[in-house]
Amino acid sequence: MIEEHAQVVALENSDVWVETQRRTACGQCAANKGCGTATLARVLGNKRSRVRTLNPQATQVAVGDEVIIGINEQALVRGSLAVYTVPLLLLFVFGFLGQLLTVQLLIVNPDVLPIVLGLSGLLLGFVWVRRFTQGIANDVRYQPVLLRRVGIALQRIVES
Predict the structure, then answer these.
(1) What is the per-residue pLDDT across 36-55, written as a single tens digit (0 to 9) for each?
(2) If I label 16, which of 5, 46, 69, 89 is the partner at 20 to 30 A Cα–Cα?
């Protein structure tokens, strides 16, 4: 389970809306100052992301509470592969098919058909990703979940 700190911003039925701080890994890198990612992060600033999380344990939280949310590693990897790999794969496959058709049909300008088919494949990949994300939108395996409130462990230690 990949965990992240968040702050509760709204409660809606059994769902909890939280905001997380977007961070880069620049704090752990030795090339912190000379890296383009660090510069870009400083220019764009740290933005917050609003996320709907499930609350399967019915943890009592209120707006403003600090919480820990988590998502299954396999779900993150599968989702990332689907979103990034499928459009690129279709771009290359359709571009390759365009190249083969150009050779077979002896087209005068050999660049047009591979480009058009490649972009068509990329567009088809984006359409597939949209349908995939709509299909998993309510799949519990792909949703972040509320794990615990921050400070409960400290409170238990103090009470002991």
Answers:
(1) 666 666 665 667 788 888 88
(2) 46
Cα distance between the two ends of the chain:
29
Of 129, 87, 120, the C-alpha closest to 101 is 120
Q: How far is CA 136 from CA 56, 76, 77, 114, in A?
A: 18, 12, 14, 32
CA dist., res. 71 & res. 140, Å (int) = 10
pLDDT digits (tens, 9 = 90+) for 110-143: 889 999 999 999 999 999 999 999 988 888 888 8
**3-state secondary structure at position 76:** helix
> What's the token pair of residue 1?
């389970």
- All domains in the chain, ordered by first residue: 2-159 (2.40.50.140)
